[in-house]
Design brief:
Blueprint: H1 2-19, H2 26-31, E1 38-46, E2 54-60, E3 68-74, H3 88-96, E4 100-104, H4 116-131, E5 137-147, H5 149-159, H6 161-166, E6 176-180, H7 192-198, H8 209-212, E7 219-225, H9 234-245, E8 250-255, H10 260-265, H11 277-287
Parallel strand pairs: 3-4, 3-5, 5-6, 6-7, 7-8
Antiparallel strand pairs: 1-2, 2-4
Helix pairs in contact: 4-5
Length: about 290
């Protein structure tokens, strides 16, 4: 594996500065080796009326059976940037392991502010519950998954059922929550991105996953990197502790030496030896 390790180090050096804010990954997708056994099942599907309401579906190869678990993936980008096509490597990585992956776009700041991006996750979930069976997924086994700001939106949709009820969904529509390096407990607002996204909301405690979590929430996989200086690991620790106190099953992982971006890149082939993020996420999905 030495050649792969050298390539991974080269890619890390080239892309880590550009990815520090979860910015575009299109070039990264073009140069990394693709996962075998995964395919793009549907592209640019509308799940709502806005031009940003679009999603892609990745699934296991044609020989795979139906009724696979489903991960609705929400990317990061400080709630103000991102494109689903840049995260094809996430969709393919999950699909190659037998998970139907839905990678969604959503409305961004300044077009919307809180709670618009969370409402879009709920709206995409409605599409998934109604349509994913046609793409090999099991609508009874839907997981809200995200990285960074996307993990925030996934957590809010999964933990506060008001969002999914407003989208026309009954009960708790998620089997589980997968949060990677998410901001869940970040008051007071001390960064321009959080002020822009949340500063207009009159009751800021209502914007925090750690505050809205309640009994009956879905099981959660919450992960962080020990060297994350973008979203501090205390966010993961605090939400994990809150959920455990409510009797919610939680798998908590701290990957030693990993950074904010490193946690995401560990889903891709060149970086999987650095941290078993993909193995752990898929195991959680399969066993929940």
């Amino acid at each position: 594996m030495p050649n792969l390790n050298r390539r991974a180090l080269l890619l890390s050096g080239l892309f880590a500065p550009a990815l520090s804010g979860c910015s575009a990954l299109g070039v990264y997708n073009a140069v990394i080796p693709a996962d075998d056994g995964a395919s793009l099942k549907a592209s640019g599907v509308a799940y709502g009326p806005d031009p940003r309401h679009r999603l892609d579906v990745y699934g296991p190869g044609a020989a795979a059976g139906r009724g696979a678990p489903v991960a609705l993936f929400v990317y990061g980008g400080s709630w103000n940037s991102g494109d689903r096509g840049d995260y094809a490597f996430v969709g393919r990585a999950l699909a190659a392991r037998g998970v139907v992956a839905v990678v969604m776009d959503y409305r961004l700041v300044p077009q919307v502010r809180f709670p618009g991006f969370v409402e879009d996750v709920a709206l995409a979930t409605r599409w998934v519950k109604a349509e994913i069976g046609r793409h090999g997924g099991d609508p009874r086994r839907v997981f809200a998954m995200g990285h960074s700001a996307g993990a925030y939106s996934a957590a809010m949709a999964a933990l506060d059922p008001r969002f999914t009820r407003a989208a026309g969904l009954a009960g708790r529509p998620y089997r589980g929550l997968v949060g990677l390096a998410g901001p869940y407990d970040f008051l007071p607002l001390d960064a321009s991105a959080t002020v822009a996204a949340f500063g207009q909301w009159p009751r800021l405690e209502e914007t925090q996953p750690v505050s809205v979590a309640s009994r009956g929430a879905p099981a959660a996989f919450l992960a962080t990197g020990s060297q994350d200086t973008t979203v501090y690991p205390r966010n993961t620790r605090n939400l994990a502790a809150k959920l455990r106190g409510l009797g919610v099953p939680v798998v908590e992982r701290v990957y030693e030496g990993e950074t904010h971006v490193g946690l995401l890149l560990a889903l891709s082939r060149p970086f999987r030896e650095r941290a078993p993020v993909l193995d752990d996420v898929v195991r959680f999905i399969q066993e929940t």
